[in-house]
Amino acid sequence: MKLLIGGYTKKKSTGIYELPLTLAENGLEMQMGPAKEVIKVGGPTYFVQDGKLIFTINNAGAKGGISSFELVNGKYQEKDSYLTPGSSPAYIGINQKKKLLYTANYHTAVLAVFSFDDEGKLTFLDSVTHTADSLGPCPEQADGPHPHFFDQTPQGNLVSCDLGNDCVDFYSFKNNKLHHLAKYQNEPGFGSRHIVYSPDGNYFYVVGELSSKINLVKFDETNWQFKSIATYSTIPDDYSDHNGAAAIKISHDGKFIYTSNRGHDTITVFAVNDDHTLQLRQRISTFGEFPRDFNWDRDEKYVVATNQNSDNATLYTRDAENGCLTPVQKNIFVPEGTRVLFSE
């Protein structure tokens, strides 16, 4: 098993790094080995994988976009790029079956769809640009819409989370064209960032970066009806310093939700009750500063969080019964990490 970690390339980092994950000497626990650069690329703050292909955000100076790399004889080779003048996207999602990629550009407010082939060739299909329909009151929202997520829904539509507009927008994608279907509006200043769904597809949990909250919403994707059920803080009530909630994950069995907190520097664990409401189970340190992303292996037994500002990663084991995390290895050097992926 191995990890791929990428992030900003403003200081020490030069691209995407690979870390081996092997049994420790005691034969009981896993441990991460040293990070080794495997893809040289600018600002791979998010990337996805399809077999031997990696599709990553690429900040190429005056241009930004996405690039594809293929693993050939143990080394990654660049296959294609789609770059345009201006900033790079913040998020890239993938539909491996349909061979589609979805990007959200935080700075330009553009959502885009691409196709790819088995060789990693990229083809632009369509895009839409968010407008300032419902800008929130926070300083981070004053300059316009900021979509931070664009990916699939349970029924195969597409969804974006817009931090600037405090909203979640839904789209269809038919005949290579995007069409707006519906909008769910979060509270002013929520800062909608990422979203996950209950296994039955009838509820979603959207995390707000600016509010450090999770909003539970009952969701009818056929008739586009929404009902806000509850909102939960990802940080303690008495925490007054700056925090930005970031990643959100839901376990495959739908029993636990996890979020990262940049500022409080923790992962918050919630148990999901039978009625889909949440119960706080744990807040655990990431043992570093500014944890943007974390992820788990296929069996959800191991979790790795990466700390962007302190250039380190932490390995945990996850208890499937109570959802809690236990740190087993700390202070693994990884520069400017913002994306964690257990490699296939």
UniProtKB/TrEMBL annotation:
InterPro entries: Cycloisomerase_2, Haem_d1_sf, Lactonase_7-beta_prop, WD40/YVTN_repeat-like_dom_sf
Listed GO MF terms: 6-phosphogluconolactonase activity
Entry GO terms, CC: cytosol
Pfam family, one: Lactonase
Gene3D superfamilies: YVTN repeat-like/Quinoprotein amine dehydrogenase (2.130.10.10)
Superkingdom in the source lineage: Bacteria
PANTHER family from the UniProt entry: 6-PHOSPHOGLUCONOLACTONASE, 6-PHOSPHOGLUCONOLACTONASE-RELATED
Family: Belongs to the cycloisomerase 2 family.
Stated name of the protein: 3-carboxymuconate cyclase
Organism: Lactobacillus kimbladii
